[in-house]
Amino acid sequence: MDEENTTLFAALAEPSRMRIVSLLRSGPLSVGEIAERLEMRQPQASKHLKVLQQAGVVEVRAEANRRHYRLRSEPFQEMENWLAGYQRLWNERFDRLDDYLRNEEE
Amino acid sequence: MDEENTTLFAALAEPSRMRIVSLLRSGPLSVGEIAERLEMRQPQASKHLKVLQQAGVVEVRAEANRRHYRLRSEPFQEMENWLAGYQRLWNERFDRLDDYLRNEEE
DNA sequence: ATTGAATATTCCTGTAAAGGAATATTCTAA
DNA sequence: TTAGAATATTCCTTTACAGGAATATTCAAT
Prior knowledge:
2 copies of one chain form a homodimer.
Chain A: H1 6-12, H2 15-23, E1 29-30, H3 31-37, H4 42-54, E2 58-63, E3 66-71, H5 74-84, H6 93-105
Antiparallel strand pairs in A: 1-3, 2-3
Helix pairs in contact in A: 3-4
The structure holds a DNA duplex (30 and 30 nucleotides).
């Protein structure tokens, strides 16, 4: 994950790419299969896969003249770690502090 | 979170917005404070905060002529839920299935 | 009512990126 | 080595969006 995670989030911010990622949850697929199942043209699929690969979301395994793309676990783990820094948001402590300050002001 | 989460990810994909989100972890801040601490101009801060607000990442509380922005917990919780659908990626089951298929092919 | 501080909005411009179509590349099989 | 399938790349056009500068709005205090 880059310093601010923006590359990963940018890769996932595109609807077509999000659909690819979701599709690959069930296992590796070739470019042609991805394009077919998502009803997109092959060049678009290749382009999106390239972006996903550069973001580390996906990796390739070449086999004959097919290329099987699969999800990598690292970006998801890194996202978990990143989220951990925000967990206290819903531990109410934060809200209570704000309520406290709000009362002090009156 | 919208159907494919892309609005949330798009909001977080912009470096300046990511810095704002990170800054707000320590508590609500006014627009001026955000702009000052992140060394950006006030109009840019306002614009980014608007995007974050529309994505549900942030909420406002007006006080006099200041507006205090604070993180909402929901998008982070929703991201946790979304990530849960990918947890099995690093439970090795997925890798083993792939190894199995790889051997079968030889 | 007027002023000034804080914030939001508008207009403009440049740039990045997505989709379409065509083409190039790579590999297998014969 | 040629043909064809699978995939990648290039070129083009259009659109979305970020930043800068200027301006509008909103609110409190006087």
